[in-house]
Write a structure and sequence with these properties.
Elements lengths: L18 H9 L16 H14 L4 H13 L4 H16 L3 H14 L6 H13 L10 H16 L6 H28 L3 H14 L6 H14 L3 H15 L3 H11 L12 H10 L5
Helix pairs in contact: 1-2, 2-3, 2-4, 3-4, 4-5, 4-6, 5-6, 6-7, 7-8, 8-9, 8-10, 9-10, 10-11, 10-12, 11-12, 11-13
Subcellular location: Cell outer membrane
Keywords: Cell outer membrane, Lipoprotein, Membrane, Palmitate, Signal
Protein name: Outer membrane protein assembly factor BamD
């Protein structure tokens, strides 16, 4: 049975584990240890069910992975081998052996591209990147890979049961990248490297405008531009912030900053922010 991560159940997992049958198998007729029985004397189904049992009842997944791998090795062209391969990918992921999970999932996709579990394999491959996304302060290379893999699930299998979950995770990973830009921008702003800070906040406003970080990015742009004496840009950033996030605490802070200098949120000049504002007014930005 494929018990999908985060409550998602794969097509292969439609049937219930044959735990009772497997327990009887493990017990054996003569009271001996069934694990001593050479696997090549067992059928593909028997080995597969051992893997299921270990997957369900063991804290570690080494044995489950071994059994599923043996099904593939001993019965390579059987339907059980196909099922064992997707279970192998799941077991690797459950064990947090993400590279091996990706490799097994990709082999399934390569060998069975038209199978009903191909969507789950693609989703599992994407999760193997997504679940490795580190804290915001670290390198985000895996986040980009997760976004690409999640996008493939959404685009290639839009009607699958995994598309909705992939879309949600895509949005979260996208927000994560914006958070990375914000962290770096704040670092520069705190150290009065205003131009470097502006470059980071600009990325959030232009490339990550649908994330939760946009309001703060606009406010930090106001702070940075005011520090450089670029009042037109500061007022324009404030105008965009007011247009989209007037109820935000960041807008309240921006308004106080501007009015304290005798300024107001309004479009000034012809900067990149003025172009963004025109897009907002036409409804093309959000």
């Amino acid at each position: 049975m494929v018990v999908g991560i985060s409550g998602i159940v794969g097509k292969t997992g439609a049937r219930v584990l044959g735990a009772g049958l497997l327990l009887a198998l493990l017990a054996g007729c003569g009271g001996g240890d069934a694990n001593d029985v050479p696997l090549d004397t067992l059928s593909a189904q028997q080995i597969f069910e051992r893997g299921e049992f270990e997957l369900e009842n063991s804290r570690k997944q080494e044995q489950a992975i071994r059994y599923f791998s043996e099904v593939e090795r001993l019965y390579p062209y059987s339907d059980w081998a196909r099922r064992a391969l997707i279970m192998q990918a799941f077991a690797y992921h459950k064990a947090k052996e993400y590279e091996d999970a990706r490799a097994a999932a990709q082999r399934f996709i390569d060998n069975y591209p038209g199978d009903e579990d191909a969507a789950y394999a693609k989703y599992l491959l994407a999760l193997s990147y997504y679940d490795q996304i580190d804290e915001v302060g670290r390198d985000q290379g895996l986040t980009f890979q997760a976004l690409q893999a999640l996008r493939e699930v959404i685009e290639q299998y839009p009607d699958s049961e995994y598309a909705k979950s992939a879309l949600l995770k895509f949005d979260l990973a996208f927000d994560h990248l914006a958070g990375k830009e914000m962290e770096i921008g704040r670092y520069y702003l705190k150290r009065k490297h205003y131009t470097a800070a502006i470059n980071r906040f600009r990325v959030v406003v232009q490339d990550f405008q649908n994330t939760t970080h946009t309001a703060e990015a606009l406010h930090r742009l106001v702070e940075s531009y005011l520090a450089l004496g670029l009042t037109d840009e500061a007022q324009t950033a404030g105008a965009i912030l007011g247009y989209n996030y007037q109820s935000s605490p960041f807008y309240e802070d921006t308004y106080r900053l501007l009015t304290a200098r005798g300024l107001e949120p309004s479009v000034k000049g012809d900067s990149w922010l003025a172009a963004v504002y025109r897009q907002v007014v036409r409804g093309e930005w959000l």
